[in-house]
Specification:
Blueprint: H1 2-11, E1 20-21, E2 31-36, E3 41-47, H2 51-68, H3 73-89, H4 91-102, H5 106-126, E4 134-135, E5 142-150, E6 154-157, H6 165-176, E7 181-184, H7 190-206, E8 213-215, H8 220-229, E9 235-239, H9 242-254, E10 258-262, E11 267-271, H10 277-289, E12 299-305, H11 309-322, H12 341-356, E13 360-363, H13 370-373, E14 386-389, E15 407-413, H14 416-424, E16 428-429, E17 431-435, H15 439-445, E18 457-460, E19 472-473, E20 476-477, E21 484-485, E22 494-502
Helix pairs in contact: 1-4, 3-5, 3-7, 4-5, 4-7, 5-6, 10-11
Length: about 525
């Protein structure tokens, strides 16, 4: 795997990056060791940034912002266009790096990079559409409008599970909005971050724009705490756990900064009695098992109408038996490894809790034996995709928690109102889905009064996982309320200014107030 990594890095033009060491992967102070979760073997060592390095990076980001904001937005769009083209050229190699570093299946790794390419394309068009409004003034010979201005350097903190795309959602939009970006990636995925940021900044530098994209790799206490407390960063976009989001939100709020939080999900999928069960089955399997259950949009709870629950569970168990667990770089593998030993331990604790609470294991429930489910020689962090059926009481407290693993909890319901209420009865509110052929049921789920799904994402006859870049992505409640990617999420990266112009030559006050001088 070390030779595989070296080949990928050379393809990406990173073979001599001074931050990386492939020949010496021994743990040492000031470094993080990157592990391949497929084999549980160390594959690289990355130098960590210290407080001084952070100060240099933050200063460079601020200086770059002052230059970049003066570049016309359509010209900024051309830089992002060139970045998208370069990422498109390196898509397969970057996707392979994602799979190698975090264990995603190769199609998912490549698809993630494609998502960054897509958001770059979206941002290019957006660079000519950063529209404000023209508003009528109550005063004669006055004009009133609003305009959107660059906000400042943006701090972007990302999680391991989308080590390329989530940064892309933020960075491509921030760039056309006139902002520079300083990226703090997860220490579980620094290689993808180094490769991605280097490619993008290489393009920007070639076009005369140094420092627009910065990268800081360090421990939370050394660089993470500094960036969230730093007033030079008016917006912190952070993706991670609800616990992490609460901390980031509190620190940023103390300095009256802005937060864009994309936090945990505990996503439910409802299957009504009239659903297309073939379609629902495929969506449940991918939603629950894709990325080994390590997506924030993973399907974690399944609500089946009692009239079809038995049949659907039998079909689901058979489908799970056919899922290939193994090397994510191998063809046909849907479920790769969990990202770390700690993740496996979290999976096992959840299974123990589910059993103790009366849950019935219908499939999986333990670590995956590499000799049975993967090619010989693999001994990484593999677990079996697992189905847990809730007891007749419907009470299964562990299902209220987000375990980053391929565990699906199955419940039954009698009425759609009951299913929607149960779906909403968790702290998180990211993604939700219903399968039904009934227009009435679908619209009840999407009730515009807000009495339907309380999540930021609501799908009909689609699974919970796999958002398109054109729509704003994000959730409610403990998921943080942030929105990234499409629609008007660009407004988070800019500041609004209301403008009034008096061209009358006379002073006219609003609300009819007169000044007699």
């Amino acid at each position: 795997m070390a030779s595989e990594l070296a080949s990928i890095l050379n393809t990406l033009g990173l073979g001599d990056d001074p931050r990386l060491a492939l020949d010496n992967v021994e743990p040492a102070a000031g470094f993080v060791v990157c592990e391949n979760p497929t084999t549980a073997e160390p594959i690289a060592r990355v130098r960590l940034d210290d407080a001084d390095a952070y100060e240099r990076a933050a200063g460079e980001a601020y200086a770059a912002f002052l230059r970049w904001r003066t570049v016309p937005a359509p010209v900024r769009g051309q830089v992002v266009r060139a970045i998208g083209d370069e990422l498109r050229t390196h898509r397969d190699a970057l996707g392979r790096l994602v799979s190698l570093e975090v264990g995603k299946s190769l199609p998912e790794g490549i698809g993630e990079v494609q998502e960054t390419v897509d958001i770059a394309d979206f941002a290019v068009g957006l660079s000519r559409q950063l529209y404000g409004l023209t508003m009528p003034s109550e005063r004669p010979m006055h004009a009133m409008r609003e305009q959107w201005l660059p906000l400042g350097p943006i701090g972007v903190i990302t999680a391991f599970n989308f080590p390329n795309a989530v940064w892309g959602w933020n960075a491509m939009l921030a760039a056309v909005c006139g902002d520079s970006v300083l990226w703090k990636p997860s220490l579980l995925a620094p290689l993808t971050a180094i490769a991605t940021n280097t490619i993008c900044q290489r393009v920007a530098s070639r076009m005369g724009h140094e420092g627009v994209f910065g990268l800081i790799i360090g421990e939370d206490q050394v660089v993470g705490e500094r960036i969230i407390a730093d007033k030079r960063f008016p917006l912190i976009s952070a993706t991670g756990s609800c616990r992490m989001g609460r901390h980031v939100g509190a620190i940023v709020a103390q300095r009256l900064g802005r937060c864009l939080l994309e936090l945990g999900g505990n996503n439910a999928l409802i299957v009504e009695r009239d659903a297309d069960l073939d379609l629902a089955l495929k969506s449940v399997v991918f939603g629950a098992i894709g990325t080994a259950g390590q997506r924030c949009t993973t399907t974690r709870r399944l609500y089946l109408h009692e009239s079809i629950a038995g049949e659907f569970c039998e079909r689901l168990v058979r489908a799970y038996a056919s899922v290939k667990v193994g090397d994510p770089l191998a063809k046909g593998v849907l479920c790769g490894p969990l990202v770390s030993k700690a993740a496996v331990e979290g999976f096992e604790k959840a299974i123990v809790a589910a059993k103790a609470q009366g849950g019935e294991i219908l499939a999986g429930g333990s670590r995956a034996e590499p000799t049975k489910l993967t090619p010989p020689g693999l001994s990484g962090h593999f677990v079996q995709p697992t189905i847990v059926r809730a007891p007749a009481s419907g009470e299964l407290p562990i299902a209220r928690e987000e375990t980053f693993a391929p565990i699906l909890y199955v419940f039954t319901f009698k009425t759609l109102e009951e299913a929607i209420a149960k779906q909403n009865d968790v702290d998180q509110g990211l993604s939700s889905a219903i399968f039904t052929e009934s227009a009435r049921s679908a619209e009840r789920f999407l009730d515009p009064s807000g009495a339907g799904s309380d999540c930021g994402l609501a799908y009909v006859n689609l699974g919970t996982s796999g958002a398109e870049i054109g729509g704003a992505f994000g959730g409610e409640k403990d998921t943080g309320g942030g929105r990234e990617s499409g629609s008007d999420s660009w407004k988070a990266y800019m500041r609004r200014q209301t403008v009034a112009v008096n061209f009358s030559g006379e002073l006219r006050l609003a609300q009819g107030i007169e000044l007699d001088l």
